[in-house]
Amino acid sequence: MIALALPDPLARQVRSWVLHAFPRGQSGIDYDEPIGDPGLFGPDTVTWRVHADFPGMLAGGLCALMLQLLHPRALAGVYDHSNFRQDLVGRLRRTTAFVAGTTYAGGAQARAMIERVRRIHAQVAGTLPDGRPYAASEPELLTWVHVTEAYGFLEGYRRYCRPVPTEMADRYYDEVRRVAEALGAREVPATEAAVHAHLEAMRPRLRLDARAREVLAVLCAMRLPVPVPGLSRELFLGAGAALLPDWAARTLGLDGLRRRVAAAALVRLAPAFRRALDDGPAVRACRRIGVTRAVLARWPRPAVAGPRHG
Fold this sequence. Notes:
The protein is an all-alpha fold. Helix content is 61%, strand content 2%.
């Protein structure tokens, strides 16, 4: 691992906090081998840019969680089959490892991770209190979870890193659906307009019921293993909530002023996070395939025109 000469005390403190909350080296993912393997995406994708930005990814992931808990059948797998009440941070770490691994690890590792999650999903099924069945492997639920995550990650990058042209947003959604489809999702939207249409179409199925309120309460009380955990939680939860569609924020009963304050604060702090964490999976993947990290700061070349789905 390359040692960084961090330019300021804030970046050093941020690095200590983040690596304590999300320690490296525990996932078993090897980002350094095999040499030359671009994995499922590679340096010519928008995905490599978006998923390299820690502030946008964490805020976007929390945005996705808040959207997901509004879908009773999608929430049921977490509610009935996980220990989210005792270990929500652990769940966030596992999700972070899956996204990083499928984005930046070599192809064989990424496909193995996807297959492992498929096996887990196959065991998660049950019945809602109203008698409706659910299964984590249902294509509709997989698509919903994917759409909320992709939306959150892209909007996090757009809000806390840099503007995203529509062409790049469309490319991102078209790229990342390959993981969702490998997991079993179907009819996955592949453009920004299609993603927004999907979110709008799902609104009649979403609600803040008793289970959703309980999970939201756990999320809002989460204690990150860092100094001043309440402040850190409020910063990232508020910044994540600021990414929500307005109708979702209203449904969740989230305060608009707190969302705006948190978003403004993360915009100011995001550069320190980038300085502090400039040696993560994205940079290691760049070294593995022999390109400089500078590629992550530039949009990829325009795509060759071709058929588009979704």
